[in-house]
Design brief:
- The structure holds two protein chains of two kinds.
- In chain A, helix 3 crosses helix 9 and helix 4 crosses helix 9 (249-265).
- Chain A has helices at 9-29, 71-74, 79-88, 118-134, 149-154, 157-165, 184-197, 217-222, 249-265, and strands at residues 35-36, 39-40, 111-116, 137-145, 169-173, 202-206, 230-231, 286-291.
- Chain A is an alpha/beta fold.
- Chain A is built from nine helices and eight strands.
- The longest helix of chain A has 21 residues, at 9-29.
- By secondary structure, chain B is mainly alpha-helical.
- Chain B has two domains: 16-201, no CATH class; 207-294 and 374-492, no CATH class.
- The chains are: A alpha/beta, B mainly alpha.
- Chains A and B meet through helix 1, strand 4, helix 6 and strand 8 of A and helix 1, helix 2, helix 3, helix 6 and helix 11 of B.
């Protein structure tokens, strides 16, 4: 037909690729969704960078609240943990120390769930020791390796895990895999969607222990979580593991000590977290492991 | 609104679109890339008759594509291209020992990039771990496609040395050959004598080529994004903690990974071949229904053909091949397979993978020596295909596991704790996965005649229908992309 006597079949090839994609991209921008035979046509998440990040002016950044760590509590911690706590005090994220309402639970024993990326895999063992010491029950650890906020926000996995384990307190550790992300606006949107999923549950959101400078992901999470729920770990000086990307076992212990100090005294949702007498106790609850990374050949 | 898509592009967005990301390299299967490729074709149509400008245009696009994936590492690639070009010219002019020395130096130089980027991190890590050294290893990054372009560089230098190909006259032509974007990230490895002559040939695209190209791109996307990625989520789930899963789950994940690997690699190759065809270039097939192989020797002739041939032509045969004594040729075969394993990375599991296949190849050769006449019955063929497929699938455990211990753990559970009575309840819990595995099996084991028949039928569709088919496939990919398998299915087993 068209191609038989066509002088420029390459033009036709170009159109064959562009027109369907243009329709897909355009549909992405439509205000409503289409249905065919009762099935909703999903929209393409512009993850590949066609929609760039919207850079926020400094004045646009919403000020929120991050609690300072209680000085008395620091005395209970080991010296090495104290060192990092001191560094923490200079963190950029303590932008406003205005009061926010603390919600102290009536329960002394909580059903604790920890979820997050690979760093959660290291923290969960430390958290387990804290839970045993303080009479909480670590109901499950959900380690989603290589996952980003997009996975946590848009897959229904988090909802299903919450439904299954019915936690009364959640620790969320995410962000290591998107330190270089520049599409901050999109990730902030996802962070807000995730914060919405956690509504009604007491939670603390732990920022990634990054060894490299991030492009604003910490700030995006910080401004998405409820005031007093975000713990910024970005300036902590934790010993590195062999991969130079994650903390080593000692690093995880120091990190958890710092988190525990903050969460037990100064977080919006405080949780009793006295330092465990016995460490490295085995986890008896489920560790759910997923991997979000794509196979990319060699 | 739709109009925002066109008008709402800001300066920041343009900068973002042209910047690189080491974490998420641009792939041929990315929708944004296909969109860009579509626009690139408009320019190509205008320049396709002017061979010189066509070459420069494609080269510029290829360099941009590589920059998007590897950023500053483009300079490493450029260095290799320039040095290869000059060294090949020198090699051609020299004779005797000087020529040999020059070739050796060129090969060492080419390989140094690959060895440095691919294995330094492992060496430093092991040295820090076992020797107590404290070498730093900050933000290590492996430039995308470095294996493929190093192999290609070696093949070119050796071919020039052997006088199989004359050195390329123009650096633009050589850079075009090396950087040609469809194959740069994941192969296939193209040989200079296959590809360089095409550079001076006029672009010919007719209705049949158009349909064939669209079919390759579309099937490639289905294989890669629809099938392989979906199966991959299940494989990762099992792979993350083998001990928490039953034998049956390991069994199913074994099939899932075998299909995932094939669809992933061959899907990407399909897209590469399809895009090259649209530009008027032919790239050789990289897979020839490998899981239909009746023995392991035949499997390696059908699997990742360009890599297998490269190992054969540039290592196996120069080292003696099957010309020497039987025992030395068998040892060499095992050595080559271990080397192929080590190419994946310097780990115990990859050595094991190489040994596994090397020993199997030797056993098959010994078998052929004693039973030279093979049965041609259909039943024998089916059994032979199934045995080969399962053997290869068991071997993939060493590829897919994150460590040697995990691979052994998975295999132990598979062989000692598999209860096929759980299959029904598994199928009830994961009907989509089972359905996809059956479809994958259907495609992989489809008889060649049926494949040709279906191919002919599809090729008879009018050209315009490919626009609609492409749209449907894109939407299907979007529909299924976010659906993850239920994360804690294994609790019940």
């Amino acid at each position: 037909m068209f191609l038989k006597n066509n002088k420029s079949p390459i033009f036709f090839s170009a159109l064959s690729l562009i027109v369907p994609l243009l329709l897909i991209f355009t549909y992405n921008y439509l205000g409503h969704t289409l249905k065919i035979g009762g099935i909703t046509l999903k929209k393409f998440l512009m993850e590949e960078g066609l929609i760039a990040n919207e850079k926020k002016k400094p004045s646009d950044v919403k000020k929120t609240y991050l609690a300072k760590i209680n000085e008395e509590k620091k005395q209970q911690l080991k010296e090495d943990s104290l060192k990092i706590v001191t560094q923490k005090d200079s963190a950029n994220f303590i932008v406003d120390t205005s009061k926010f309402e603390q919600f102290i639970s009536q329960n002394s024993e909580e059903r604790v769930l920890i979820m997050g990326d690979s760093e959660c895999g290291g923290l969960c063992k430390q958290l387990n020791d804290y839970c045993i010491q303080n009479g909480h029950k670590l109901v499950a650890s959900f380690v989603w390796n290589s996952a980003t906020i997009l996975n946590f926000a848009y897959a229904d996995t988090v909802t299903q895990i919450i439904k299954k384990y019915k936690p009364t307190y959640i620790f969320l550790v995410v962000g290591l895999n998107e330190l270089y992300a520049k599409d901050i606006a999109k990730r902030k949107k996802a962070a807000m969607a995730l914060a919405k999923k956690l509504e009604g549950i007491r939670y603390s959101w732990i920022g990634p222990a990054n060894y490299v400078k991030d492009y604003g992901i910490n700030n995006a999470f910080f401004t998405s979580a409820l005031p007093g729920t975000f713990f910024s770990s970005k300036d902590l000086n934790l010993p590195k593991g062999s991969d130079n990307r994650h903390p080593n076992t000692e690093g995880y212990r120091m990190w958890m000590d710092t988190i525990a100090s903050w969460v037990s005294t100064s977080a919006k949702y405080p949780l009793q977290m006295n330092e465990p007498i016995k460490r490295k106790q085995g986890i008896k609850s489920k560790i759910i492991s997923l991997n979000a990374s794509k196979y990319r050949g060699y | 609104m739709a109009i925002n898509f066109i008008t709402g592009i800001s300066w920041d967005q343009l900068i973002y679109a042209t910047s690189y990301s080491l974490q998420a390299p641009l792939l041929l299967s990315d929708f944004s890339f296909i969109f860009l490729f579509g626009f690139f074709l408009f320019g190509y149509a205008l320049l396709s008759k002017e061979i010189k400008w066509r070459t420069i245009y494609v080269l510029a696009f290829s360099l941009f594509f590589y920059y998007k994936s590897s950023g500053p590492f483009l300079l490493v690639f450029a260095c290799l291209i320039c040095s290869d070009f000059l060294l090949a010219k020198l090699i051609e002019k020299k004779e005797g020992t000087k020529k040999k020395i020059l070739l050796c130096l060129s090969l060492i130089y080419s390989l140094s990039f690959l060895l440095y980027f691919k294995y330094s991190s492992t060496i430093i890590h092991n040295s820090n771990e076992y020797l107590g050294t404290n070498f730093s290893l900050n933000d290590w990054f492996l430039p995308v496609g470095i294996s493929f372009y190093t192999f290609q560089s070696i093949s070119y230098l050796v071919d020039v040395y052997r006088r199989d190909v004359p050195p390329v006259k123009s650096i633009t032509d050589y850079a075009f050959y090396m950087t040609f974007f469809p194959h740069i990230i994941a192969g296939p490895i193209i040989r200079a004598n296959d590809f360089i002559p095409q550079l001076s040939a006029p672009t010919i695209l007719n209705s049949a080529t158009y349909k064939e190209s669209m079919m390759r791109i579309t099937t490639g996307l289905i294989k890669k994004l629809l099938i392989a990625d979906y199966l991959g989520t299940y494989v990762s789930l099992i792979n993350e903690s083998p001990i928490n899963h039953t034998g049956l789950e390991h069994f199913i994940s074994m099939y899932a990974f075998s299909f995932q690997l094939y669809f992933d690699l061959s899907g990407y190759a399909d897209i590469a071949i399809g895009m090259a065809h649209l530009l008027g270039f032919r790239i050789k097939e990289n897979f020839d229904s490998p899981y239909l192989a009746r023995n392991i020797t035949s499997f390696w002739r059908k699997w990742h053909i360009s890599i297998s041939n490269w190992f054969k032509d540039y290592i196996y045969i120069p080292m003696g091949g099957n010309k020497g004594k039987l025992i030395s040729s068998y040892t060499l075969l095992i050595f080559i397979m271990v080397l192929g394993g080590l190419w994946h990375g310097m780990e115990k599991r990859f050595i094991m993978l190489g040994l596994f296949h090397g020993v199997a190849l030797v056993i098959h050769k010994v078998y052929l020596k004693y039973v030279p006449m093979q049965s041609k019955s259909k039943v024998f063929s089916i059994i032979a295909v199934l045995i080969t497929f399962h053997f290869v699938s068991f071997g993939w455990f060493f590829l897919r596991a994150s460590s040697f211990d995990y691979a052994i753990q998975s295999l132990t559970i598979l062989f000692t704790k598999t209860n096929f009575m759980q299959l029904y309840s598994f199928a009830m819990e994961r009907p989509e996965l089972i359905l996809l595995l059956l479809i994958s099996g259907g495609i992989v084991f489809m008889p060649r005649q049926l494949k040709v028949y279906l191919n002919d039928k599809i090729m008879k569709l009018p050209a315009i229908s490919w626009v609609f088919l492409f749209l449907i496939v894109l939407q299907l990919i979007i529909q299924f992309k976010d659906q993850l398998p239920h994360p804690f299915i294994y609790l019940q087993f």
